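Example 3.2
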Amino acid sequence: MSALPRTTPVNVAVPSPRLFIAGAWVDGEGSAEVAIVDPATGATLAKGRGASPAQVEAAVAAAARTFPAWAAMPAYERGQILRSAAAKLRERADEIARVMTLEQGKPFAEAKGEVLSSCEIIEWNADEGRRLYGRLVPSRASNISVQVVHEPVGPVAAFTPWNFPMTTPVRKVTGSLAAGCTCVIKPAEETPLTCLALAKALEDSGLPPGVLNVVYGDVNAISQQLLDSPAIRKISFTGSTRVGRMLAEQAARALKKATLELGGHAPVVVFEDADLENAVPAIVALKYRNAGQICISPTRFIVHEKVFAPFLERFNAYAKSLKVGPGLEEKTQMGPLANGRRAAAITSLVEDAVKAGATVASGSAPDGGNFRKPTVLSNIPMTARVMTEEPFGPLALVNAFKTFDEAMAEANRLPYGLASYVFTRDLATAQRATAAIEAGMVAVNSARVAWPEAPFGGVKDSGSGSEGGSEGLEGYTVTKTVSLAW
């Protein structure tokens, strides 16, 4: 990593990473070192060791041991613990957000917003646990009752990435706990501190020891150990399609349930009647949120030729106006990329696209270290790698289309199908587009597809299963038919 011309002016205490196993906070005993590195400065802020195989086994054993009692606890009581944890996270939001910014890089305002929105997810799951209704099936006989009930599947192994270190663990941890499951979570080694703050809030709210366990360290070894354990009955993974495929194959061999939220390359279809004045600010804000490191980030802008020029002009103006800097600086609107790997990948994709014939509308130049400017490319040939590879960074791709069918063909061209966006003032066009687009989530005249009360998930190579909504909790259950005669 090159030296960075940035400093972090705010003095924030960064705790050393520890593990949370069977209700105890312990130092890791594994061979892998875990370092908390500030993406804005390259400084190592804290170090610790990852979990040893014995510690991972202890975490699984704790989850298995506590599962019967947790599953038997009334949903109302489980919900009270979760609601209390949400309240504590709100009280600690500033402190947690500062640490999140230092370990992940996103601006403080975004980090705090992530903590607060995660509290809404916790509260939804807390209440949804009380709504895991079964049903009564009309019987063929007067002396038989046929019931369908949902029961918790068992101990869960959750795997989360670094880009949303609070939201993604919250979805998996509190979804599984609300359904009556216990959980072993492996957060990203780059950003474990935020997940540990979630565990601390749950502990302080009375979560029984062993119901939640947090381990990390040697990625491959820990993941394999969790997948191989017969005690683990469900996995939930958020990450790349490549890794998701491998985990799904291994889970299938052991007949474990799996929820997979994988990659995306979200299309944005802008029809000629779109309200650009409102559409552009909303979509730019989402595009460059978290420096574009979001699985639902809009990337391929498919714009009708009649509004292509004004759309591009407005988009460029907003992109150029964004203030890039360290996340703890007050005026920062976009922070650094999370690590050198992402920064190098964006530079490589831009260079390849330009070589293929794309036009640089704005940005593109490295901005020092892990910083990259909000970048807009236009008229990108299909031969450019970025038209196929998910950029996962502050890179927008703007091309024109002529007909509805042409736009839909481009929107569905890739094997991904997570989020998509449509802008039009015509209801018929909106209905046709939402029916034609192959994606798990579609937003019309809006840049928001994620809601605590709605399912979040993709189709095709973007995964299977959902988090959020009633579907999210049902993913942590098994269905039982009860036929009762008298």
